[in-house]
Amino acid sequence: MRNKHLFCHELLARYRACTDRQLEWRLIPMSIQVVRMTHFENASIQKTANVYFDGKCISHNLTLPDGSRKSVGVILPATLEFNTGAPEIMEVLAGQCRVTLADAPASQTYEAGQSFNVPGNSHFTIEVTDTLHYVCHFG
């Protein structure tokens, strides 16, 4: 039987040649875990943070070269209601939340790797029990 530790080193050497700058490598005993790191190239970043609800939601606005706007932030444990002007896609990077969209009959749970759409000129309630990291993509 092949030495599992040696096999991991072989895999690591093979994947180090990968040119994808968004990969972060972590050697874990007997396995290799690849974690996708998300970043935006050439973004213009607003230096002043958006602080809402007495600091329970903090974000920074970004503008990409194509003109698209995003905000990147965190929501601390709380139940908050947000209003929208433009349509939004909320991408959950870490944590978990329950969201009730305007006029929705029930709430839905979202976790890391999932997203939800919020129509423009609307509102939603978000319940966060553990710190939520997100990207809001404005439409």
Automatic annotation (TrEMBL):
Keywords: Glycosyltransferase, Transferase. Its EC number is 2.4.2.1, 2.4.2.2. The keyword Glycosyltransferase applies. It catalyses: thymidine + phosphate = 2-deoxy-alpha-D-ribose 1-phosphate + thymine; uridine + phosphate = alpha-D-ribose 1-phosphate + uracil; xanthosine + phosphate = alpha-D-ribose 1-phosphate + xanthine; inosine + phosphate = alpha-D-ribose 1-phosphate + hypoxanthine. One of its GO terms (molecular function) is pyrimidine-nucleoside phosphorylase activity. InterPro entries: Ppnp, RmlC-like_jellyroll, RmlC_Cupin_sf. It comes from the Bacteria. Belongs to the nucleoside phosphorylase PpnP family. Catalyzes the phosphorolysis of diverse nucleosides, yielding D-ribose 1-phosphate and the respective free bases. Can use uridine, adenosine, guanosine, cytidine, thymidine, inosine and xanthosine as substrates. Also catalyzes the reverse reactions. This is Pyrimidine/purine nucleoside phosphorylase. The gene is ppnP.
